[in-house]
């Protein structure tokens, strides 16, 4: 088994390979592979996933992969790399800077190391099960906000529960209970903001494993808490992460609309 230091180094290299390819090709951000009602799949999503995978395969040719662009490549390996080459694809395609590349490595359900790289913000977030969370080398710590009425919570508008109607009930519920609710368009970065203590929590009713695998560990290693509230088909979760202090209160607030 490779050391977590080596796994983390590889996760960083792969996230940078994906993110830098996207940044270098920023002018091609509107090259669409497929349009959906509330989403878009870009040529660059696929190219960036290839970059990340190639980086990992050079070091660990026998490991398996699970990524947004192409599903499980399960070859029975003990370690599995979970990749989102561009998280916040819609932001990226519009030219907004809030997008990132996310790479995690897990053994079974346990994430061992993860990296989230936001090239336009020049931010690299890292953590491992035996290492604290960092951003560009600086230690991260979650906020000390202890009540929902002082808390800023990020959320996402789940893509496919009903693609024509945003989950208004959930938003209404969140909005009524917290200081501010934000929808910023990249779940992985939303979680890194929790780890950084700039926001206090994140919730989404149908988020994919590759959006949260690396950043969930980053929240935990910054002193916060991340939980899968419900598993759904196709690697999708009802998911919450907070600074820990408001965790139960946030879950209680959302329970009636889950
Ligand atoms: C999406 C973003 C968004 C979240 C969606 C995700 P993608 O990831 O993280 O914030 O609300 O549920 O699928 O498609 O840009 O990688």
Radius of gyration computed on alpha carbons? 17 Å
| Alpha carbon gap, first and last residue | 39 Å
Give the amount of beta strand, in percent: 25-35%
Shape: globular
Number of strands: 14
- What's the rounded overall pLDDT mean? 93
User: What class would the helix/strand composition place it in?
Assistant: alpha+beta
This entry's quaternary arrangement is: single chain
Strand order of the largest sheet: 3-4-5-6-7-8-9
The percent range for helix content is 25-40%
Q: Tell me about the largest β-sheet.
A: 7 strands, mixed
Helix count, DSSP H or I runs of 4 or more residues: 7
- Helix and strand sequence: HEEHEEHEEEEEEHEHEHEEH
Q: Can you list the ligands bound to this structure?
A: D-MYO-inositol-1-phosphate
Low-confidence stretches: none
Throw out a few tags for this protein.
258 residues; alpha+beta; seven-stranded mixed β-sheet; five-stranded mixed β-sheet; 14 strands; globular; binds D-MYO-inositol-1-phosphate
